[in-house]
């Protein structure tokens, strides 16, 4: 399917260093972006679908880099079906699993954690709830795992490893396993902050610096934050990516945002939700954290968007998260909300409001056009102007 989005007012690229693209058109073909900013009239006329953005703003699809999936679109933690599809209506087009730790009766022996990770990886390999891409199957690091286990599971496609819920005596015991996972090409993530569930332990800067994972999960607390003095240590004494989450501590989120900008380490600053957990289900969680940063700190709104898109993509090696030629065609259109004080999306976020999600496209396929069921309606008339395929792209009514 070839799709053109025309009459865009602004294009936010997802790259904080070059956050704006000139022009008003994005063209996609076969699930990839083929042009950003400008397109010939012939290129637009030749599209199967043309979406008129009516002056609204395009951003890359949001990447929630910490989602607690299990199997299918269901969370036993909150006993809810369809939460991932609902997150698409919050502008999230990609989710990265934080391990399948909430699977009831989850195994804790080496063979069991390998089987759980592989099963989840395979289940979500082609399953796309609401059109969302889910990177599932993060092996939970447990005592008894050997280097050969990481070699085995990596050869089968599993590329994520999570420390923080295992039955180790001390968080320092994760360091060797994290090293094995990294050696075999896996992205390693570590729970950060106080204990989040009974039986787990707190993990702070000393532990993380000893482990040297790729990503410090919910560094602002999941939900309980580590001591304030640990934040500058992680920024200045490591190269670990620092992920803040909506379900964490807002004060330390804002504090860390200032520290990374002052240290010129913004590439390492990531946004996620850390849901569904005891904090609940948050389809607009990514949007809330973006607007918290844009309205309560001096962070430019386009940087906050990059932390939720391009920064995540770069750390995890994904082909999405950026509005660039050759990238996955995951695009979101935002606008100011009807009844809001700001008519335009980015001004709404700067003022502390959410923006209206007016269109979500994943894999070059519009999943809905016009309005989201999770936000107020947009001010502008975002619509399908031309369509040659037998598909209704309108969203379900509230």
Which structural class is indicated by helix and strand composition?
Answer: alpha/beta
Mean pLDDT over all positions: 95
Instruction: Report the top-level CATH class of the largest domain.
Output: Alpha Beta
Overall structural domain count: 2
> How do the strands line up in the largest sheet?
12-13-14-15-16-17
What portion of residues is helical?
25-40%
User: What percentage of the residues does DSSP assign to strands (E)?
Assistant: 15-25%
Number of helices: 12
Span of the ends, CA to CA:
28 Å
**What would CATH call the homologous superfamily of the largest domain?**
Metal-dependent hydrolases
Q: So what's the overall shape?
A: globular
- The Cα radius of gyration reads 21 Å
């Amino acid at each position: 399917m070839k799709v053109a989005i025309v009459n865009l007012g602004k294009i936010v690229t997802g790259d904080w260093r070059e956050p704006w693209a000139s022009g008003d058109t994005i063209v996609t073909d076969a699930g990839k972006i083929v042009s950003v900013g400008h397109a010939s009239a012939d290129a637009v006329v030749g599209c199967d679908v043309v979406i008129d953005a009516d002056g609204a703003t395009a951003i890359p699809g949001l990447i929630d880099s910490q989602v607690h999936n299990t199997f299918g679109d269901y969370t036993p933690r909150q006993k809810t079906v369809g939460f991932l599809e609902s997150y698409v209506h919050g502008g999230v087009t990609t989710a990265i699993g934080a391990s399948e730790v909430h699977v009831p009766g989850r195994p804790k022996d080496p063979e069991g954690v390998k089987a759980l990770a592989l099963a989840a990886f395979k289940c979500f390999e082609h399953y796309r709830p609401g059109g969302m891409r889910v990177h599932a199957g993060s092996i939970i690091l447990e005592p008894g795992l050997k280097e050969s286990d990481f070699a085995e599971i990596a050869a089968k496609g599993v590329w994520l490893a999570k420390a923080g819920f295992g039955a180790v005596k001390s968080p320092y015991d994760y360091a060797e396993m994290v090293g094995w996972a990294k050696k075999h090409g896996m992205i390693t993530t570590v729970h950060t902050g106080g204990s989040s569930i009974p039986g787990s332990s707190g993990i702070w800067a000393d532990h993380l610096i000893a482990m040297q994972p790729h990503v410090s999960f919910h560094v602002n607390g999941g939900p309980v934050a580590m001591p304030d003095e640990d934040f500058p240590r992680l920024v200045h004494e490591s190269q670990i990516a620092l992920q803040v989450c909506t379900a964490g501590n807002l004060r330390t989120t804002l504090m860390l945002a200032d520290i990374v900008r002052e240290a010129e380490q913004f590439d390492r600053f990531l946004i996620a939700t850390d849901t569904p957990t005891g904090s609940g289900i948050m389809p607009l969680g990514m949007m809330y954290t973006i607007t918290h940063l844009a309205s309560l700190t001096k962070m430019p709104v386009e940087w906050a968007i990059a932390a939720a898109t391009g920064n995540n993509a770069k750390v995890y090696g994904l082909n999405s998260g950026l509005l660039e030629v050759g990238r996955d065609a995951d695009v979101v259109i935002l606008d100011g909300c009807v009844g809001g004080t700001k008519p335009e999306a980015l001004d709404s976020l700067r003022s502390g409001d959410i923006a209206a999600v007016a269109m979500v496209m994943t894999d070059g396929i519009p999943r809905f056009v016009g309005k989201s069921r999770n936000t107020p309606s947009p001010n502008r008339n975002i619509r399908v102007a031309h369509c040659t395929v037998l598909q209704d792209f309108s969203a379900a009514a509230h």
